[in-house]
Amino acid sequence: MKVWISLIMTIMIYLLFKNIYRKWKVIVLIPVFICPLFFIFLLIIMDFPYEQYHQGTKWLTYLLQPATVAFAVPMYKHWHLLKKNMVEILSGVLFGVTFSVFVTMFFSLLFGFSSFITHSLVPRSITTPIAVTITEKIGGNASLTAAFVILTGITGLMLGQFLIRLLRLKTPLAKGMMFGVGAHGIGTSKAFEIGEIEGTFSSLAMILAAIFGVFFIPLLAPLVEKFFALWI
Amino acid sequence: MKWIRIGVQVGILILLNELGKMISHWLHLPIPGSIIGFFLLFFCLKRKWISISWVEAGASFLLGEMLLFFIPPVVGIIQFKEVILSSGIHLLLVIVIGTVVIMVATAWLVEKVYRLRREETTE
Questions:
Q1: Phi-psi bin for A25: left (phi > 0), alpha (psi -120 to 50), beta?
Q2: Nearest to A88 among B31, B96, B110 (CB)
Q3: pLDDT tens digits for A146-161?
Q4: B107 touches chain A (CB under 8 A)
Q5: Residues in chain B within 8 Å Cβ distance of A96
Q6: Helix, strand or coil for residue B1?
Q7: ipTM strictly over 0.90?
Q8: Domain limits of chain B?
Q9: What parts of the sequence cross the membrane (chain B) (predicted)?
């Protein structure tokens, strides 16, 4: 019985905050931030074990897998845009993903995080379903990674517009790629607010970063770790 | 009617995902089944074996509501209370600074490559 309650509650609270956010556009009310916070407090207050909440909601999480398959649809629809800007998109994605592994490892060592936390941080620019797969491969934790991914996305969403002005970005390509590579799906939602083309480039960048990341990050992460270990 | 269509199409995507998992399992591939499912669907769309109208509504539903599916795993950080209490501020710093650095570098590079290529073609 309790199992069903956590599932139904999750869907209802999500729909509630989705509508509130659509109306007011206040950043702290973005469902992906406020809903988990709501349930964390609720579980603590009611002394409800996470294991039971997880049992009730695991098929919701399962839908992240067919959602990954679904990325093939926008990729197919916008294939011509991808082909036309192949050089810019591929170089941006390859560079962005590689660079993000270096940056994250560097800061993690600087702050002296354990390797468990570092490995959970590394894939955080990649869209959640894939980031979770990567983290399990390199020895991080899925829940920590999911939370880091969300915070990364919200950072990108909040600061993206400011960065566009700061860097005086002109091309929709650079604007979109910045969101897609740096802030995955949450950033992409902001890119779509700026413009249809920006959003499309952002989602293409996000998909390619995920595909590239799933093959490449598990190979790259141990190498970068060794590289920094030599210096620090 | 709209919801039946979405339901059936989500079903097709789930089937492709499960097929991808089976392939990954049989061939002992280090790639998750959902990624194989992604390539399967892309390939089938390209070869016109699957019409886009069979999956488009289901795909936009799953991608549009993806944030809902994130909620349970994020709630899972409740299992790491000590980590959050002891290094939460540092983690937040790394995430914010790191994300800004990555976004700036990527945007800068893309704009640079874009200009280089346009100059090439106009000369």
A1: left
A2: B110
A3: 889 988 998 998 899 9
A4: yes
A5: 102, 105-106, 109
A6: coil
A7: no
A8: 1-64, 76-123
A9: 26-45, 57-78, 84-110
